[in-house]
Structure formats: C-alpha cells, structure tokens
Amino acid sequence: MALRHNNSIKRQAILGALCASREHPSAEMLYDALKADYPQLSLGTVYRNLSGFVADGTAVAVASVDGHLRYDGDVSAHGHFICRRCSRVLDVPLSFESRSMYADIEDTFDCTVDSCSLTFTGTCSECRK
User: Fold this and answer.
1) Which residues contact 121 (CB under 8 A, 6 or more apart)?
2) Are residues 41 and 10 in contact, defined by beta-carbon separation less than 8 angstroms?
3) Burial state string for 37-58 with b = 16 or more CB within 10 A and e = fewer than 16
4) Are 14 and 50 a contacting pair, CB within 8 Å?
5) 7 pLDDT more than 80
6) Predicted structure pTM score
7) Which is more confident, 117 or 1?
8) In terms of Cα–Cα distance, which of 118, 13, 124, 115 is closest to 54?
C-alpha cells in the first residue's frame, strides 16, 4: 500500500511541476527539478507519468526540441512558438477567428475536431538582439 501512496505523491509532484512551469519542460527538465525533493524518483517514472498525462488529456506533448519531447500542462486551446536558436517554447494565444477554424473544418469534412496542434518556429526576441 505504501508503494501506491508514494507513486501517487510522485505523480502529483510531476503534474504540479509541469503545470507550474512556463518553460514547457522535457522529462529530463522535470526530473532535474524534482529529484532533490524526491530522491527515489526515477527518470523512467517521469516519462511514464508524462505519457499517461498525455494519454488522458491532462497534458500535451508540444514538440521535440533538440531531441527532447517538451510538454505543456495547459491543455486549453493555444499554439506554440519554438525558437530555433535557444529552444525556448512560448505559448501563442489563439484568437476567436482561429478557433472558428474548428467549425469550418467540421463543416467542410463532416467531422468532429477535438484538438489542434499549431506550432510556429523562428527566432525569439531575445535571440534577435
């Protein structure tokens, strides 16, 4: 029973760190942020939990950046901008007009749209300086 409890605590810690982060962390970034407080935490546990969060809709896998999949705990409708130089991932709010694309797609293809993944790449303002 204690093992389940510890896994639940670790799971909540991983989800809490993901949702609190504005950096769109990788599994490695979350592991590094949590390992001091949870010395029994393994990188495999972080990966398994992130996979579960994505599967159940609690998190989103944003994109692979520098060979590492990055995650977002904000599952509301929005896009992302990825800087090719520094690998920063930024949230891009969707306007009302962008969200109306869902209806246009549903009408055109007689389907139901559940989500959208919109990613822009380029150079962020910090790297442009």
Assistant:
1) 81, 82, 83, 84
2) yes
3) ebeebeeebbbebbeebbeeee
4) yes
5) no
6) 0.83
7) 117
8) 115
